[in-house]
Amino acid sequence: MKILFLLPILFFTTPNMNARKKTDAWLSELLHRNASGALLHILNNSDSFQYQLIYTQINRNKHNTPSFKHFYLHVDKTRYFNPASTVKMPVAFLALEKLNKMNKPGVNKCTPMLTDSAYSGQTTVLGDSSSENGLPSIAHYIKKIFLVSDNDAYNRLYEFIGQKTINERLWQMGYTDFRVTRRFVPATEEENRHTNPIRFINAAGETLYVQPAAYSNLEFDFSKRILVGRAHYNRADSLIHAPMDFTTHNNAPLEDLQQILQSVFFPASVPAHQRFDLTENDYRFLYEYMSKLPAESKCPQYDTTEFFDSYTKFFMFKSGKTPIPSNIKVFNKTGWSYGFLTDIAYIVDFKNKVECMLSGTIYVNRDGILNDDAYEYEELGYPFFKEVGNIIYKHELERKRMFVPDLKNFDIKELQTVRNEK
Q1: What's the pLDDT score for residue 53?
Q2: What's the number of domains the chain is made of?
Q3: What integer pLDDT is reported at residue 323 of this predicted model?
């Protein structure tokens, strides 16, 4: 892990730059005590690297009911980081929830879904060669989101749910600082408010349900200006000697992302209003594909030289394309963009009966220029996640538990057997 001297990075949010951070001395001491020199360099320069960490300790009682204790390091809802693909996680959950609420005969997550176009910037999708039947579906899009963080799959779910519904539902669940305003494709703010007409069809090509084009008239609070870096390249590939403006971009505080993940793996641990309306089959489907590796997928099938085991698994594994042992499963969603790396994970070791949650983000952009593709992901970002993850994992292996957790509900082999039986 190469140590690089970081130049001062301009990072502004207004107002309230000095909001109190959540930090637990115990977590800071644990990491500092076990850190390499390279990790210490990052830990001791929190202002430059903008990192935030949440370690969630899980303890079970004699009935296997879990309880949770969160430890924080520099967690601050007012400090912006670009969430990148982590917003795909709640959007995937909301897509399944919307299907359940629609309750249309013959329409489920595996029903072919065709996307048409009706506004500037929109594109159609009438087929998907990576699926078994050559047609796109909600289920297939969700698979691609969690297997390789596919951008187009996210865009199609964004269009299915609609910008207004995504945000109003998340706010209703208590995530009032969350903001999902855009697809992952060049588009204006107005184009992102318009979403495509959609059709669900049966195997014979007959239309089962039509969802018309929609428009979001939702009002967002953009009063807090968010500027990152000292310069950036714009869409015309011109260098602009000013910070990049993220004021209207997606926003997802780390605590909210952690709680959203926890609500899907442990629904009873959160208030009723924070639970997604999902079926037992939905949960099993999500558990399977949130932990499945690209090499384990047949439809879609991936080139594993590009999409290696740890392609979307940052904590413990990403650096050096480390193979993931079969006894460990990481149920997670990562994101990477503009020098920001983020991972929201539930980690399970079935052999050693260990489980915990880890959530983290870091900013690695030495030159302070955004959109130049010169970020220190490999040198600093991925090694940070790997080392932090392994320090926590080692602590979990050594930690005394009153009751050994029963983790069979998350065993992917059992999940596949149950799904095949159904």
Answers
A1: 98
A2: 1
A3: 87
For position 7, what pLDDT does the model report? 38
How high is the pLDDT of residue 10?
A: 42
Q: What pLDDT score was predicted for residue 21?
A: 86
**Residue 166, SS3?**
helix
How far apart are the C-alpha atoms of 275 and 268, rounded to whole Å? 8
327 within domain boundaries: yes
3-state secondary structure of 101: helix
Q: Are 208 and 111 in contact (CB under 8 A)?
A: yes
User: Helix, strand or coil for residue 55?
Assistant: strand
CATH number, domain at 184? 3.40.710.10
Cβ contact 191:118 at 8 Å? no
- Report how far apart, in Å, the C-alpha atoms of 151 and of each of 147, 156, 184, 356, 391 are: 12, 9, 6, 28, 32
* 166-174 contact pairs (CB < 8 A, 24+): 166/90, 166/91, 166/94, 167/218, 167/220, 168/218, 169/94, 169/97, 170/90, 170/94, 172/273, 173/273, 173/274, 174/271, 174/273, 174/274
Q: Is residue 6 part of a domain?
A: no
pLDDT at 5: 37
Does residue 269 fall inside a structural domain?
yes
CA distance 8 to 24: 26
Q: Which residues of the chain have pLDDT under 50?
A: 1-18, 421-422
Domain extent for 392: 11-421
AA identity, residue 79? R
Spatial contact of 145 and 153, defined as CB atoms under 8 Å apart? yes
Find out whether 169 and 191 touch, Cβ atoms under 8 Å.
Answer: no
Question: Please, are residues 226 and 353 in contact by the beta-carbon 8 Å criterion?
Answer: no
Query: H or E element: which one contains 66?
Result: strand 66-73
Q: Which of 368, 80, 349, 131 is nearest to 240 (CA)?
A: 368
